[in-house]
Amino acid sequence: MKKVFTFALILSGLSLLLALGLFLTGSGSHTALPVIGGLFLLAIGVRRSPATTSLTYTVLILTAVSVAMYQPQWFIRWGNFELKRLIIPLLQIIMFGMGSQSSLEDFAGIAKNPKGVLVGITSHYLIMPSIGFLLAVTFPLPPEIATGIILVGCSPSGLASNVMAYIARANVPLSVTVTAFSTLLSPLLTPALLQLLAGAFLPVDFWKMVMEIFNITILPIVAGLLFNALAYPGQSRRSIAIQIAVYFGIILLKNAIALVEGSTDFAETVGWNVFWFIGMPLLGGWLFQRWAGGRREIMDSILSTLSMVGITTIIVVITAAGQQSLLQVGLVLVLACFLHNTLGYFLGYWCCRLVGLNEQSSRSVAFEVGMQNAGMASGLALQMGQLATTGLAPAVFGPLMNTTGSMLANWWRSKPPQSEEVPAEPSPVSS
Q: Are 273 and 158 within one domain?
């Protein structure tokens, strides 16, 4: 099999060189097949080495993105159906998956390492928004696209950072806890920071964005947590009852905010929210426990596949919608996102070292700072009506951070700290 992967790498290199030659000789219109074919072969070839296997999914995303750049009309509308309408439901499924693979213990992690959690959350919401703002005002980008860079910086971290922390032999419990709390705080901090830093670029409706973050992120995660409580053994009826009460309170809070903002269907919306985000997850968890015996690996496999398909679809749809803008500012935007991402790693790590956190915790916070929930940022850009402009930065940042994160995690994995005991590896966090 290794020979097959090697052959694919060679063909990939030749195909991409052919594409470059065609472009340099003025035959750019004929580069579609060698570019798409070269990237697809590269996705196969990177499986040759364990150190690069984790890049397979990212290269497949780049392959799909290249198709969207050459044939954007394929991903904008099918008949009378606009594909951008898939983005919010797909994001909710991804966030449900995040919640279903979490539990209340993730939030209890603050009691075990309060300093690490505090430093992680503070670094995340100070460093990335600040870098995003500086890049937005420095790079020659249209205001709507510059806003996307700030939006990425103001978003919470996601599950990808937990996976990288595991690969890097970092402090995985700390990573999971920081992800949980940064997400929990996002309905307040993301709109507030975006309004503060990007208000000069694009009008930001604070309360509307609060509502969208509840709908896109918080309520699906709540649904996932409830599914987790019923699907897998270990939680008492009292714990489940308390969670239902708390999550019902979250639904009431979300709809109370909507009522203040002028909504007139409070009771009906509460009813639907309870049905979809409490009733259905409880029923689904109970059925999964009875029919599948609560075997976590089954649900992990299903949700991981749905998440990968969902993220790829979202990025492709955004790329197709913003193809013309990407052709004009693509290289500048990629450079800005690269600096945003890598400076996040660097500053996150060294801030932790300066305040005395150990190597494992510093590595975890580096990923928590540098890797953002680009999916949520894409959904917010859609709700702002700026998918083809503001949504471009999240679409670029997502694959880029997975590539750099995989490289950094594998490099750190090969360099265990010499002066500190390396903890036993926990079970891998599913993406």
A: yes
- Residues 381 and 390 sit within 8 Å (Cβ to Cβ): yes
State residue 166 phi and psi, 5-degree precision. -65, -45
User: Do both 307 and 371 map to the same domain?
Assistant: yes
Same domain, 393 and 351: yes
The boundaries of the domain holding residue 69 are 1-79
pLDDT tens profile 398-411: 999 999 999 999 89
Can you tell me the distance from the alpha carbon of 156 to that of 190, in angstroms, rounded to the nearest whole number? 8
Name the 3-class secondary structure at 78: strand
Number of separate domains in the chain = 2
In angstroms, the CA 150 to CA 370 distance is 13
Q: Are residues 38 and 175 in the same domain?
A: no
**CA 72/CA 68 separation, integer angstroms:** 5
* Cα–Cα dist 158/141, whole Å: 26
Q: How far apart are CA 228 and CA 251, in angstroms?
A: 19
pTM: 0.90
Q: Would you mind telling me the total number of residues written for the chain in this entry?
A: 431
Residue where one domain finishes, among candidates 51, 79, 107: 79
SS (H, E, C) 364-379: HHHHHHHCCCHHHHHH
Outline where 101-142 has alpha helix (H). Answer: 104-112, 114-138
Say if residue 296 is in the same domain as residue 313: yes
pLDDT tens digit sequence for 192-216 = 999 999 988 888 999 999 999 999 9
- Is there a contact between 204 and 198 (Cβ–Cβ < 8 Å)? yes
